[in-house]
């Protein structure tokens, strides 16, 4: 068996959707590229951000959907 050679994406669990958008877009300057409902838990959302080089960061959050994106 070989070791891990790469990473597809990182998922972070956060609380409030709008706080998540405000931080990643407003503070870190990342672009919200996709917002989708978690099929396993419809009250939870997946938010995907990209940096200036289109590297993705995904996050899973609860609560109402954010207004951005």
Task: Describe the protein in words.
The structure is a single chain. Helix content is 16%, strand content 36%. The chain has 69 residues and is α+β, with helices and mostly antiparallel strands. It has one domain (11-62): Roll (2,3-Dihydroxybiphenyl 1,2-Dioxygenase, domain 1). A four-stranded mixed sheet has the order 1-4-3-2, covered by helices on one side. The longest helix is centred in the N-terminal third of the chain and has 11 residues, at 17-27. The model has no long low-confidence stretch (mean pLDDT 75).
Write a short abstract of this structure.
The protein has 69 residues and is an alpha+beta fold. The protein contains one helix and four strands.
Task: Please write out the topology.
Layout: E1 11-14, H1 17-27, E2 31-37, E3 44-50, E4 56-62
Parallel strand pairs: 1-4
Antiparallel strand pairs: 2-3, 3-4
Can you tag this structure with a few keywords?
single chain, 69 residues, alpha+beta, 4-stranded mixed sheet, globular
């Amino acid at each position: 068996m070989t070791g891990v050679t790469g990473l597809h994406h990182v998922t972070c669990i956060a609380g409030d959707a709008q706080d998540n958008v405000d931080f990643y877009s407003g503070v870190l300057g990342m672009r919200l590229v996709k917002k989708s409902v978690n099929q396993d838990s419809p009250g939870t959302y997946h938010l995907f951000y990209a940096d200036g080089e289109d590297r993705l960061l995904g996050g899973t959050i609860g609560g109402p959907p954010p207004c951005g994106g």
